[in-house]
Amino acid sequence: MTIDEYAVWAATIAKVDEQPSNERLSYLGLGLAGEAGEVAEHIKKLLRDDWLDKAGLVEELGDVIYYWACLCAATGHQPSELLKASAAKIKRRISEAASR
């Protein structure tokens, strides 16, 4: 399954249509933030306890991807295109930093 296929599937699960309501967008955004917080909790526990629950972290990363993919679909963007744009932006920043 590609990331774009996953986003289509996730959007059907989350009942995202072509014109999502502000409430639906808010729900998805808050879901993403909440799951990112769960990822942060795993990292915090790594720092505190010097132990990482890798399986738990990976599960939460999957939840982050779910909400991210739903938001991509809700805004009419293919995840693969956002990944390409993100890579280009990061490469540009690296190049700019190297030239300073």
Automatic annotation (TrEMBL):
Pfam families assigned: MazG
InterPro entries for this protein: MazG-like_dom, MazG-related_GP37
Domain NTP pyrophosphohydrolase MazG-like: 29-93
Domain of life: Bacteria
Protein name: Nucleoside triphosphate pyrophosphohydrolase family protein
